[in-house]
Amino acid sequence: MKLLLDSHILVWLAAMSTKLPAQARLLIEDTDNSLFFSAASIWELSVKHALGRDDIPVHPRVLYRALLDNGFQELPITSEHAFALEALPPIHKDPFDRILIAQALSEGMLLLTSDETIARYKGPIRLAR
């Protein structure tokens, strides 16, 4: 299965945080799954890091390198992903989360999230607790 991890899951994984849900850890550690991160997550984390947010314990460049070094694949943002935004109902207003949802739908990936609002969308989304 192709798994696209949302930004919080990525940060918790990199920081070895106890906030990372056990279900997420199991899916990530399953070698049958292909792991992806979105350029949108790196963008989001870079913005938050530049603002001095203390909930980003890992520098986005360090996270990026660690993800690649550990076999994750980067998913760029394409025009097709942007077009898929049109079909999304206005459940969530966060543009970073909305592009992750659009990417998962467009690419046939399971979006793994801990965000209950994201999980309200229909489609390949799993709320990890």
CATH class: Alpha Beta
- The name of the CATH superfamily reads 5'-nuclease
Derived from helix and strand composition plus strand pairing, the structural class reads: alpha/beta
Query: What is the overall shape?
Result: globular
Approximately what portion of the residues adopt beta-strand conformation? 5-15%
Instruction: Using the CA coordinates, give the radius of gyration.
Output: 14 Å
Q: Report the biggest beta sheet as strand number plus sense, adding barrel if it closes.
A: 5 strands, parallel
Structural description of this entry:
The two termini are 19 Å apart. The longest helix has 13 residues, at 95-107. This protein has 129 residues and is α/β, with parallel strands linked by helices. It has one domain: 5'-nuclease (Rossmann fold, 3-Layer(aba) Sandwich), CATH 3.40.50. The chain has 6 helices and 5 strands. A 5-stranded parallel sheet has the order 3-2-1-4-5, with helices on both faces.
What tags apply to this protein structure?
alpha/beta, Rossmann fold
SSE inventory with pairings:
Blueprint: E1 2-5, H1 7-14, H2 22-29, E2 34-38, H3 39-50, H4 60-69, E3 73-75, H5 79-84, H6 95-107, E4 110-113, E5 125-127
Parallel strand pairs: 1-2, 1-4, 2-3, 4-5
Helix pairs in contact: 3-4, 3-6
Summarize the structure.
The protein is of the alpha/beta class and 129 residues long. It is built from six helices and five strands; from the N terminus they run E-H-H-E-H-H-E-H-H-E-E.
